[in-house]
Write a structure and sequence with these properties.
By secondary structure, the chain is α+β, with helices and mostly antiparallel strands. It is 20% helix and 36% strand. It has a 4-stranded antiparallel beta sheet, with helices on one face. A hairpin with a 6-residue loop joins strand 1 and strand 2. The longest helix is centred in the first third of the chain and has 14 residues.
Length: 127
């Protein structure tokens, strides 16, 4: 029996038991951080439908194109502000590590999240 695939979000769980549930629509993000992690994982596994579904309508692109040769490798959560089950908005600062055509890189962002009909969605990046 093969070992379950680890979740790209960085939590010590199998993909199917972690972000895979959110991608499949069998669970919803309870916090802004959980949505951030699941969106990173969606970029890592190239799940465009999930990314579009969790993007605020005001900034949602028509489609998501994945850059050839770009692979998202690791996520670090640096800070969170609000975004719990008791909040309507939240901010998650993160560092995402990637390789592009074999070269290592990283991006850092403070993402803003809000709720639409009770569900967490990505709004935009600060500044």
């Amino acid at each position: 029996m093969s070992k379950p695939k680890p979740c790209p979000c960085g939590l010590p769980a199998a993909y199917a038991d972690c972000c895979g549930r959110l991608h499949a629509g069998t669970a919803a993000a309870a916090t802004a951080e959980q949505l951030m992690r699941s969106r990173f994982s969606a970029f890592a596994v190239q799940d465009a439908a999930y990314l579009l579904r969790t993007w605020h309508p005001s900034g949602r692109p028509v489609r998501v194109d994945f850059e050839p040769g770009l692979r998202w490798r690791r996520l670090e959560i640096l800070d969170t502000v609000d975004g719990s089950a008791f909040h309507q908005t939240g901010v998650v600062e993160f560092r995402a590590h990637y390789t592009q055509d074999g070269e290592a890189g990283e991006m850092r962002e403070r993402s803003r999240f809000t709720r639409v009909d009770g569900a967490w969605v990505y709004l935009d990046a600060e500044g």
